């Protein structure tokens, strides 16, 4: 687990199952006194305004029911000057990575999903949701609309994922 000087960390997820996985990892690392796992909806958080110094979301905003509502809620609970960091899937735009990614997600990934989960549709949603999700400057523009500043998109792994950073005014 990465080291941090944070005195308190809150992990929030709508899925009790995901929280249980997190709790086991936290216990294994002896971090239960610093990390609290809370069940909740990112679009309606039970925290006061200006509560968190920093917020991170990894591969989660793509699943918000209403993207702008979830981002506005994150903005609300983030302190002024606080940083918001997102790691999310994206679609490569440069040759040959774009073509390779398309082939992999349309043909290879569904086969892998079927083999490991015995479900014909497993993992098929991933490529579709990534392709339909606003990424790069499109997501930065949505963040700016919410009132975030200093919005940056940094593609990773040839554009398969992107790290976004933004700051609350």
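^ structure tokens above, recovered residues below v
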């Amino acid at each position: 687990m990465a080291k941090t000087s944070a005195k308190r960390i809150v992990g929030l997820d709508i899925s009790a199952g995901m929280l249980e996985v997190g709790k086991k990892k936290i216990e294994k690392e002896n971090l239960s006194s610093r990390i609290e796992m809370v069940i909740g909806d990112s679009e309606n958080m039970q925290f006061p305004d200006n509560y968190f110094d920093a917020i991170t979301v990894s591969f989660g905003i793509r699943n918000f029911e209403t993207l702008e509502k979830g981002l506005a809620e994150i903005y609300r609970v983030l302190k002024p000057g606080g940083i918001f960091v997102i790691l999310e899937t994206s679609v490569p735009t440069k040759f040959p990575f774009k073509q390779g990614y398309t082939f992999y997600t349309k043909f290879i990934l569904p086969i892998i999903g079927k083999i490991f989960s015995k479900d014909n549709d497993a993992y098929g949603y991933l490529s579709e949701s990534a392709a339909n999700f606003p990424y790069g400057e499109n997501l930065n523009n949505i963040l700016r609309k919410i009132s975030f500043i200093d919005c940056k998109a940094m593609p990773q792994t040839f554009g398969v994922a992107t790290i976004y950073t933004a700051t609350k005014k």
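The mean pLDDT is 87.
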